[in-house]
């Protein structure tokens, strides 16, 4: 490996051993469904956003957990004070926080260094705000290639896709989304890994309150992605930091 490449990797907070693993091009695992029977892992993309607390409370009131895949600078800046407070709120309620990369770029179109930059910035933000380094990343648009998988492997993260798309990212009417959920629940698959968007008002106020009750009545355990896969949610858990002038988008 060229010396310049090693310097770039180390600048992203990678250890020397991780750099050597890159040379072997190990590919991260990609999960598109849960493995633990009778579980549902409800996921939310594109936050943090203004509906975070409402979604979190709805889940908590039904003894359910969710997984929030966060961008750093998409709909809002993750370092805005109100947004940081919401991230802490979600995390402290026991939901999983994970990476959706910094600016929601199509990772399959980016270079090795650009993919690392997109991932590293979110890892740094989550470590600063709540003290954790995520073990899971959802690529925006579900788009990835071997370059993305290799970079994710170096960064110690698995990729998570989905097996049920609620359609709220495509502006599907909430009644249609609820009906699709109901049809899936009535088929009672062993597991469900649904994609929703934290930025959708109808998801927060109409869809999630309805389908969480249906899933509960159907006997599913609503857990985090990590729990539905029997894995750890974070590479490390520590103390959060204190904001300074470097905390910005």
UniProtKB/TrEMBL annotation:
One Pfam family per UniProt: Polysacc_deac_1
Cofactor(s) annotated in UniProt: Co(2+)
Keywords attached to this entry: Carbohydrate metabolism, Cell membrane, Cell wall biogenesis/degradation, Glycoprotein, GPI-anchor, Hydrolase, Lipoprotein, Membrane, Metal-binding, Signal
Record GO cellular component, one term: plasma membrane
All copies of domain NodB homology, residue ranges: 38-223
One of the GO biological process terms: cell wall organization
Signal peptide: 1-18
CDD domains the UniProt entry points to: CE4_ClCDA_like
Name of the protein in its database record: NodB homology domain-containing protein
Lineage, broadest ranks: Eukaryota, Fungi, Dikarya, Basidiomycota, Agaricomycotina
């Amino acid at each position: 490996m060229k010396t310049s490449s090693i310097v770039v990797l180390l600048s992203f907070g990678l250890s020397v051993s991780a750099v050597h693993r890159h040379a072997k091009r190990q590919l991260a695992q990609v999960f598109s469904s849960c493995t633990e029977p009778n579980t549902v892992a409800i996921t939310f993309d594109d936050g943090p956003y203004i509906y975070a607390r409402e979604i979190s409370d709805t889940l908590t009131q039904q003894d359910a957990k969710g997984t929030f895949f966060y961008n750093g600078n998409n709909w809002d800046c993750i370092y805005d004070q109100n947004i940081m407070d919401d991230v802490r709120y979600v995390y402290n309620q026991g939901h999983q926080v994970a990476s959706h990369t910094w600016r929601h770029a199509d990772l399959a179109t980016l270079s090795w260094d650009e993919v690392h930059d997109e991932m590293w910035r979110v890892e740094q933000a989550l470590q600063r705000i709540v003290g954790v380094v995520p073990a899971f990343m959802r690529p925006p648009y579900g788009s990835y290639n071997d370059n993305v998988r290799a970079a994710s492997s170096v960064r110690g993260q698995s990729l998570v896709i989905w097996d049920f798309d609620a359609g709220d990212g495509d502006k599907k009417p909430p009644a249609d989304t609820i009906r699709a959920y109901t049809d899936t629940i009535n088929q009672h698959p062993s597991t469900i890994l649904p994609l929703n968007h934290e930025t959708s008002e109808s998801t927060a106020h109409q869809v999630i309150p309805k389908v969480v009750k249906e899933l509960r009545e159907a006997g599913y355990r609503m857990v985090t992605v990590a729990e539905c896969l029997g894995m750890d949610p974070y590479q490390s858990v520590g103390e959060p930091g204190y904001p300074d002038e470097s905390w910005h988008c």
